[in-house]
Design a protein that fits this description.
Largest sheet: 9 strands, antiparallel
Strand order of the largest sheet: 1-2-3-4-5-6-7-8-9
Number of domains: 1
CATH class: Mainly Beta
Helix content: 10-25%
CATH architecture: Beta Barrel
Protein name: Glutamine synthetase
Order of helices and strands: HEEEEEEEEE
Shape: globular
Keywords: Signal
Structural class: mainly beta
Amino acid sequence: MKTALKCSLFGLALLTFDAWAQVPGLANCTRSANLLACVDANGNAYSVNTAGKTIYLRGFEKIGQRYWAQTNSIYGQLTFFTGIASDGEAWVGYNRRVGWTTINRFSSSGGSTGKFTCSRLTGC
């Protein structure tokens, strides 16, 4: 779950900061109007597709050899997400923007829970 969540959060960041897709070593990405598709050096792959205020993420986690999908719905400063992996693990969570800070919480059926805060100035 943690790898899938990192990939999905990273994918959202790439949508927000397109310049990151050009930094060597992070991921090799292809972009169209609504779709961003990336593969990293470790063999993980993911895509981010936007449709209005909904973001669809799909990916492949190389280490766990599993596919995953996540849907994010944006309501103002809140983004709710739900996801499922090919091994049956499911997760839910939200991101809340407060100024330049994002508060993130998630919980998964595999027993993982987490809360972390990210800032544009100090990172996560």
